[in-house]
Specification:
The chain has 17 helices and no strands. It is mainly α. The chain has two domains: 175 residues, MFS general substrate transporter like domains (Growth Hormone, Chain: A), CATH 1.20.1250.20; 178 residues, MFS general substrate transporter like domains (Growth Hormone, Chain: A), CATH 1.20.1250.20. Helix 1 runs antiparallel to helix 5 and helix 1 packs across helix 6. InterPro entries: MFS, MFS_dom, MFS_trans_sf, Sugar_transporter_CS.
Length: 376
């Protein structure tokens, strides 16, 4: 039951944090604000959530994963409820900051709980978890198509209820005993693994946040819209799901380093294609799907990161790594809005891919799955 409850909570956290991006036009219209003003809420969700998730990760190290994951799902439910009731930008900003806190802290803890539950298949497990963001994208596409831009309040209420259910299921689940309350200092976290994990997380968020936050806007840069955009988004999401699971499984067999390098090369190639042939819809759509698939490196990277730190400091160390990535990644969507036919998006893809290739070559040695099992 624990695996199922953690997976469901991750899924609804993913759908929740993506939901505003899909309904941004309807929200801005209802609140009599511009799209850019409403989009500040998304920025706040990443930046506030990044900082708060570190504190909640530290709390999880002291009191355990289950109560903090229950708290995260509860915060998501509260934030979505407040967002549905908001009548102005200030209310939306506060509500979506809570959504960011809930989603970011849920994800950070879920990664290593899942890895601990299935230590010999941690890459595959994290790949399945992270692929749920693409399942979430498909769910939001369906909700948006069914309810339209004016149905955002109903969407938020529905997601709030689903997060309440997740909180109850998490509370009833039995989590693996691992950490104990300890007096932990930052100096106890090894510096080189922390630098690597922070860098790799930054490359992931730089790559994926622009691609997933405003998919329709991203494709419009190449003149792809309407039903064609829906087809491309669905195809790219399917490619993402396959990639996350496949790269995770591959990393369990051959190690983490090679899949990261392959994904970096895929990302660099897709960025180069988009840069050279932005006006070609078929090439841009294909390159977009390849870039989404390249983000599957997180399956290997996420598993690698969970293997770098001792169990007593794992929550704090991983959330510190995610902090840097989320702060940088939270700014990345604004790159997409730069002029010159999507040069901002292309820049994000190329920068992330370069960081990934270099990091995979210089990364520290991780624990084996067997060591991970002995640690728990």
């Amino acid at each position: 039951m624990t695996t199922a409850s953690v997976t469901l909570s991750f899924l609804w956290a993913a759908v929740s944090v993506l939901s505003l991006g899909y309904d941004i036009e309807g929200v801005s219209l209802s609140l009599k604000a511009s799209v850019s003003e409403a989009s500040v809420a998304i920025l706040l969700s990443w930046e506030v959530g990044a900082v708060a998730s570190v504190l909640l990760g530290r709390l999880a190290d002291r009191i355990g994963d289950r109560p903090v994951m229950v708290m995260s799902s509860s915060l998501l439910a509260l934030g979505l409820l407040l967002a549905a009731a908001s009548r102005g930008l200030c209310g939306l900003y506060v509500a979506w900051a809570l959504v960011g806190v809930g989603a970011n802290s849920n994800n950070g803890i879920a990664y290593y709980v899942a890895a601990d539950l299935h230590p010999s298949r941690s890459g595959t497990t994290i790949g399945v978890l992270e692929s749920l963001y693409f399942v979430g994208a498909m769910i939001m596409s369906g909700l948006y198509a069914a309810l339209g831009a004016s149905g955002w309040r109903l969407t938020f209420l529905l997601l709030s209820a689903l997060n309440v259910i997740s909180a109850v299921l998490l509370a009833l689940s039995k989590f693996p005993p691992r950490r104990q309350a300890v007096a932990l200092r930052l100096s106890s976290i090894p510096a080189k693994p922390l630098l690597f994990s922070s860098t790799i997380m930054a490359s992931y968020f730089i790559l994926t946040v622009p691609l997933l936050t405003y998919p329709t806007y991203t494709l419009s840069l190449a003149g792809i819209g309407g039903s064609l955009a829906s087809v491309v988004i669905s195809a790219a999401s399917a490619a993402g799901i396959i990639s996350y699971v496949s790269i995770g499984a591959l990393s369990d067999r051959v190690g983490r380093r090679l899949p990261l390098a392959i994904a970096g090369i895929m990302g660099a190639a897709s960025g180069a294609l988009m840069l050279a042939l932005t006006s070609n819809k078929a090439v841009f759509a294909t390159a977009y799907a390849v870039a989404v698939a390249a983000s599957g490196f997180f399956s290997a990277a996420g598993a690698w990161v969970t293997e770098l730190f001792p169990g007593s400091s794992e929550g704090l160390a991983i959330n510190l790594s995610l902090l840097f990535g989320r702060v940088i990644g939270g700014l990345a969507p604004f790159l997409v809005t730069l002029p010159s036919s999507g040069r901002g998006l292309i820049m994000a893809v190329l920068v992330a891919s370069t960081i990934l290739i270099v990091s995979s070559a210089l990364a520290p040695r991780a624990r084996t799955a067997e060591t991970k099992e002995r640690k728990t």
